[in-house]
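Please review this one:
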Amino acid sequence: MTVSYEDVVSAAERIGGHVLRTPVLEIAPGRFLKLEQLQHSGSFKVRGAFNRILSAGELPEDGVIAASGGNHGLAVAYAARALGVRAEIFVPEVTSPVKLAGLRALGAHVTQTGAIYSEAAEAAAKRAAETGALKVHAYDQPEVVAGQGTTGLELMAQTGGVDTVVAAVGGGGFAAGVAVGARILTGSTGSSGVPGHSGAAGFAGGPKLVAVEPERIPTLHEALKAGGPVPVEVGGVAADALGASRLGDLAYDILSRAGALSVLVTDDAIVAARRTLWEEHHLVAEHAGATAYAALLSGVYVPEPGERVAVLVCGANTDTATLAHGQG
C-alpha cells in the first residue's frame, strides 16, 4: 500500500471541479503561508474526502461513513452533500461545539462517542460492518492521502518551488500526501542517525519536510524512535484535530522514507502562533491550523539565511470569539 506522484496528479484531475485552489500568501521574502483553512469545509480534508468517494465508483445505499475529531467529518459531510449521498459521522467527546454544529448543518448523521478519536473510530468501523457504507478513513487510506497531496502540487506551482515545507501531523495523512505531491524525494538515514530524520536541506531535487506535532500528541516523533507506529497519549489544545493516538501506517512509510524532520511544539507556542496569525495577518486558524507556524515562531525550526519556507495553515474550524485578546 503506497501512494505515487502519479496518484496525486490523478487525484488533482478527479477533484479539481470540487475543491478550491487555495491562495499562497508571502508574508516576508521567502516566507509563504498556504491557506488551506480557506478550503471548503474549513480544512484541507475535503481534498481526500472527495478523492476517496469519487474513486469508489458506485456507492452503497447507506452512503459513506467516517470517524473524525471534527475536520475530516466536516469534509466527508461536505463532499457527501455535494455528491448527493448519505454521510454518517462518528466523533469523540473532545470534538468542539463549532465542529458539531457544522456537521449537523451539512446534514450528516452524527454520533458522539468515546473520549478520543480512536474510540470513535472503533465505533464507526463496527457500524460500517453492519451497514456496508463506504469507509472514508481520516488519514490511512491511499485515496485520502493522494487527495491531500494535491495541496503539495498546488504549493509548488504557486511558489515556483521552495526549500522547505512545514506541515502539522496528527495521523500523518496530510504531511504524507504533501511529501508525495511536492516531490519530496525519498532517502535513507538522515544526518541525525535516526531513520526518517534529516539534518540536511532535503534530498536532491526536492524540498525538505518539517513535520510539526504538539508535545502532547507526538505520534510521528515516537514512531520514528520506535521504528514504526506506536500508541501515544492524546491531550492539549489541538487534540480535537490532531488527536490521533497512533500514526497511520501509510504515513509512517512515506514520511520515514521522505526524511521528514520531526519537531515538537508546546501548547503555549501553538496558542501564540494562532494569535499571531490573527493579529498580524488577519487569518483565522484553529489550534491545529496554527501548529506548523508555531515551529517557526517559537524557534523550534530555524531556517537558514535565504531558505524559502512554506508553512501549511491547515484548518479554521474554531470559535472566532476566542480570537479576541489572545484567548486560547
Notes: The domain at 46-135 is CATH 3.40.50.1100 (Rossmann fold).
